[in-house]
Structure formats: C-alpha cells, structure tokens
C-alpha cells in the first residue's frame, strides 16, 4: 500500500502535464485556423474586371466587396489618385495599385495602368524638306533622290537616314492655335554612339532646342539593327500658324521617323508640304551613253551650275564640265546634281577599244575535256561585262580554244583573270596553275593573279600562224586557283 501511495502523486502530475500539452496543441491549431480564415477585401471595376486601364486625365470607378469602414489608397499618387468613393483619376503614364483597407480584413488591391494621351498629331519626317550639304544624296547616303530609307522597324516602314555633315531636314506644320506642346521624335540608331547634341542641332521656329542630356538610341533588336524609340525633345510654345522644326546634321545621325505632338489644349495640326524641287533634265542620248575606253562624251543640260559624280571611277571618270572619259570595261552611273534640285543620272557603258589586228576570244567558247561519264570537267561562272569565266577546273582538265588569226606573227596574249573563290593554298601563278600551249608550243609566264577583282595579265611574244590556231590550257592543281574570263591577242608592232 505504501508503494501505491508513493506512485499516485507522480501519476497525477504526469496526467496534468499531458493534459496541459494537449491544451497547447489545441490552442495552436485553433490559432492557425483563425488566421487562415481572415477575410479579404476584393476590388473590381464597375464592370467586374480585375484591372483598370486609363488615359492621363481620365477617371474610372472601382467598387469594393466591403462598403463600410474602408479606406481607399494608392501606392503611387504620381501615376493615379483615388478618393474615398473609389473614383480613380489618371495623373501620368505608368502603373500603380489602388488599395482598400478595413480593420480585421486583408488589404485588397487592383492594378491601374495609365497611358499618355494620344498625340494631337503625328507627322512623318519623310515629308520634310531634304537638303544635302552638296545638293545630292548619293551612294551610301540614300537611294537616288532623297535620304528616305525603307526601314521595316520604323512605325510606317520608312524613315530618313544616311546623314552627313551639313545636311539639313526641315519639317513645317501649321497649328490652329498658339499652344504649349511636347514634341516627341521617333528615331533609330545610325552607326554612331555620340549623344544627340554631338551629332545634330535642332531648332523650333529658329530658336535652338537644348539636346543636352537627351537619350540616344542604343537598344539592339538582336539582329544587328536598333529599335526605333520615342525621344522627347521637350515642351515648347507653338505659334498660331506655320511652325518650322529644323535639324542640322554635324555627322552621322539617327534614322528619323515620326514627330508626335502632345498637348492638353485642343488644336489642329497640319503638315506643310515641302517645296517642290525642279528636276534636272539631261538633253542628250536619253541619259544613256556607250563609249569605248579612252573615248569621251559630254553630258548636256539646259541647267547651269551642275556638279557631277561617278559611282565607279575605275570604269569612267567625269570632270567638272560633265565630260565623261571611259577608263575600263564595265558599267557605271554618272550622277548630276545641284543644290535645291532633284538630281539626274546618266548610265555609262564602257567597252574596251580594240587595237588594229586584235583578236578577242571568250573563255567559254573553248571545248572542255570530259570525265569518265562523258560530262564536261570545266564549269563556268558569270564574270564581269556579262561574260562567263572558267570556274571549277580540276587537275588534268583541259580547255581547248580556237584562235583565228588573219595574219601570222608575234602577238601579246592578255588574260582577263582573277583569283578563284575556291583557290586553297596556291601561289596564284599561271605557271603553277596551268600548262599552256599554242599549237603544241609551250607558253611560259611568271605572272601572278593577286586579287579577287578582274584584271589583265600578259604573256608576251606568242607566235600565231595565219588561220586556225589551237590554245590549250590544262589545269595542274586539284582546285584551280585562277578564273579566266577572256583572252585577246594584240599584234606586236
């Protein structure tokens, strides 16, 4: 019995502790359940949407699932404000959250996106008056007459670019009222990373615009180009009547696309057409000329004070008076321009002037040796002047060309040739590339083809007989390093 009495107090204490522990767990479980059941205020628009989009100055009405004892608020009153009835007012472009708080409830939120008002006008810079420093947009500075450029990333697919130092763009427009307006210019990257103030000056109604600190377009589109971005030039006073926005280029400038005009005041903005420019008219040969090397032709026009530019002076040159001289076989364009006028162009085709008694032979007139299947071993590639040239010329392949001479004698043989695109590791010498014979007599030359452009290479003192002569050219390398276009034989005086 004594032992039983001694045990009971401990048993009772253990039972009490056990019950206490159970009570703690139950209480903790009850607390978690209470927390998870706290209600939340929900916020929606009057048409039950869970977000709201407004334009600056617009208002929108929100509603909450609770109507009493609630407090409305905004996380960014610079974007949107809200009164205690749930009325939201859009202040500036951006995104914020409208909140509703009530004691004992989780806070409710709704996202509000604010967009800026549409511009009162959008004008295309392509409609500006283009003025190149030298009077003409040529070569890399624009396709033919103007610097308007097809750029798919621009809003309407085109923009203007190719600027150089001294070029000027003037966009004119009218306003039906004197208003304060923000001018925003859409532009894209154009091979220069300098700040805007470094590459162009801007004026509105002949008053300089401060471009310092203005953003420059640098974001890549991931394909080697740059996205078009809207850059604010600032807020300005437009006059009632004609306004003029001018850009003076100091060097390469961004591609210029749209000018967007924003204003809180209603006004009608209308583009003013750029002044029409007179077109230069050439009065001879319908602008197309065909001359031989060393010959000349005069470009004529009723317009005085013209300037001239040859796109390829290796084919034809032109002097300050419009006299064109043929230099080498090929085609080029002579551009004729004058400041303030639409330019003209003359297409020039130059053929080589043949010497007395000269014999001309095209490589593709030769006969190719055959492979085991009976197919030609030599193929031809398009060459300069519309000819074909030898291309694939495997080791052992032979080209046989007939040369018809009116008179027997010593001739200089000239190859029009270039280095092959699939040349491999070769020294590009004719002696290394080919075994050449005329009427079975070996021809020797140390001439080396030193470039990918077509050029003349000479073998002196080649003896021809009157009538038919046979020229054979046999490839000595597995991959022929030289392409041949044509040959000419000029009598040695």
CATH architecture assignment of the largest domain: Sandwich
What is the strand tally? 38
Give helix % range.
under 10%
**What is the rounded distance between the termini?**
152 Å
Q: Could you tell me the strand content as a percent range?
A: 35-45%
Shape: elongated
**Rg from alpha-carbon coordinates:** 41 Å
Query: What's the structural domain tally?
Result: 4
Largest sheet: 6 strands, antiparallel
Summarize the structure.
This protein has 493 residues and is mainly beta. It has 3 helices and 38 strands. Strands 10, 13, 15, 16, 18 and 20 form a 6-stranded antiparallel β-sheet that branches.
Structure notes:
The structure is a single chain. The chain contains 3 helices and 38 strands. The chain is elongated. It folds into 4 domains: 73 residues, Immunoglobulin-like, CATH 2.60.40; 152 residues, Jelly Rolls (Sandwich), CATH 2.60.120.260; 67 residues, Sandwich (Immunoglobulin-like), CATH 2.60.40; 133 residues, Sandwich (Jelly Rolls). The strands form 10 sheets. Strands 10, 13, 15, 16, 18 and 20 form a 6-stranded antiparallel sheet that branches. A 5-stranded antiparallel sheet has the order 29-32-37-34-35. The N and C termini lie far apart (152 Å). By secondary structure, the protein is mainly β.
């Amino acid at each position: 019995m004594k032992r039983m009495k001694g045990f009971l107090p401990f048993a009772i204490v253990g039972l009490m502790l056990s019950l206490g522990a159970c009570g703690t767990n139950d209480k903790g479980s009850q607390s978690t359940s209470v927390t998870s059941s706290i209600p939340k205020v929900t916020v929606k628009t009057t048409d039950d949407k869970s977000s709201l989009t407004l334009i600056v100055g617009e208002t929108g009405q929100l509603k909450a699932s609770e109507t009493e004892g609630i407090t409305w608020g905004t996380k960014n009153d610079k974007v949107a404000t809200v009164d205690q009835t749930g009325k939201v007012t859009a202040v500036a472009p951006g995104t914020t959250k409208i909140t509703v708080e009530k004691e004992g409830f989780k806070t409710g939120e709704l996202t509000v996106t604010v967009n800026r008002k549409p511009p009162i006008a959008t004008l295309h810079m392509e409609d500006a008056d283009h003025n190149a420093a030298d009077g003409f947009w040529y070569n890399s500075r624009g396709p033919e007459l103007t610097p308007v450029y097809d750029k798919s990333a621009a809003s309407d697919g085109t923009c203007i670019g190719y600027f150089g130092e001294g070029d000027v763009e003037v966009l004119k427009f009218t306003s039906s009222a004197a208003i304060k307006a923000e001018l925003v210019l859409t532009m894209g990257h154009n091979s220069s990373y300098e700040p805007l103030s470094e590459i162009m000056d801007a004026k509105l109604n002949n008053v300089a615009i401060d471009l310092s600190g203005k953003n420059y377009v640098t974001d890549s589109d991931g394909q080697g180009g740059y996205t078009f971005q809207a850059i604010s030039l600032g807020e300005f006073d437009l006059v009632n009547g004609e306004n003029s926005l001018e850009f003076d280029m100091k060097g390469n400038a961004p591609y210029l696309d749209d000018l967007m005009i924003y204003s809180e005041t209603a006004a009608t903005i209308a583009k003013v057409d750029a002044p029409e420019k007179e077109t230069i008219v050439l009065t001879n040969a319908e602008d197309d000329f065909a001359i031989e090397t060393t010959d000349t032709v005069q470009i004529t026009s009723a317009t005085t004070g013209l300037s001239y530019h040859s796109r390829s002076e290796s084919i034809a040159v032109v002097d300050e008076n419009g006299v064109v001289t043929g230099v080498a076989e090929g085609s080029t364009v002579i551009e004729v321009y004058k400041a303030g006028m639409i330019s003209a162009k003359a297409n020039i085709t130059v053929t080589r002037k043949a010497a007395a008694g000269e014999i001309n032979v095209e490589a593709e007139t030769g006969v190719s040796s055959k492979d085991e299947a009976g197919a030609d071993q030599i193929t031809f590639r398009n060459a300069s002047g519309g000819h074909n040239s030898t291309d694939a010329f495997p080791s052992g392949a032979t080209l046989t060309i007939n040369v018809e001479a009116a008179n027997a004698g010593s001739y200089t043989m000239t190859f029009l040739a270039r280095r092959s695109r699939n040349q491999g590791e070769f020294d590009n010498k004719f002696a290394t590339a080919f075994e050449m014979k005329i009427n079975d007599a070996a021809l020797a030359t140390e001439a080396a083809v030193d470039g990918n452009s077509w050029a003349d290479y000479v073998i002196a003192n080649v003896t021809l007989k009157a009538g038919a002569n046979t020229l054979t050219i046999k490839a000595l390398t597995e991959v022929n390093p030289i392409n041949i276009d044509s040959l000419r034989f000029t009598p040695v005086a």
